[in-house]
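Re: the request from the purification team.
They wanted to know what the chain is likely to look like in 3D before they choose a buffer screen. I agreed to run a prediction and write the result into the notebook, where they can find it.
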Amino acid sequence: MPTTFIESNFVFEFGKTWSVISFDQHKYFKMLSGHGLSGVDFVAFSKEEVLLIEVKNYKRRPQSPKPPDISDLLGNPPPLAHAFQEKIQDSLQIFRVIEAYFQRKWWFSGYKKLVGIWKGFQFLHPDVYFWIQLFEQICKQENSTTAILFLEVESQYPELNPDELHQMQLQLQREMELFAPKLNIQSKILHLSTSSINDLRIVEQ
């Protein structure tokens, strides 16, 4: 059975190769977001990589009479670039806080050993097991973490003609390519309708 989430009018179906949480809805994120920290929509990992996924849908919604607010796309660089960078940096910082929290727990090292002996123990505390596996995956493979911005836009807007819209996306990609190496991660802009991630299906509602 796939793990299914709805975000920005799209249904995300993660196949069995992925372990995934809705990060900005997770209890640990909610505990820390009051300190001015932001977070990505999803955190997912497989045996090969870790994905930090942010979804931005600037298309007109059928159920809404209002046109989409594209103020984040206007400017050089577009404000979306800084907002996305901040979410990635904050998410990684929250990971470190969560890991430090677990390390202080007297039972944590014992639980890790038990899970290492028999995977069945993961069902006792599946949430803790998720974080153990995530931390190990990040440490195991250098530069295996990818920040993905799923960006869905109209072909044009009153404020942006097609050429300006294309230039905006190029500028957004350049900004991402500049900040990602500083965090020892990779970055990609993908379109929801043409996602190329294995074992991830995205359907518009």
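For the purification team: The helical segments are 27-33, 79-103, 108-117, 126-140, 162-179.
Please add any questions underneath this entry.
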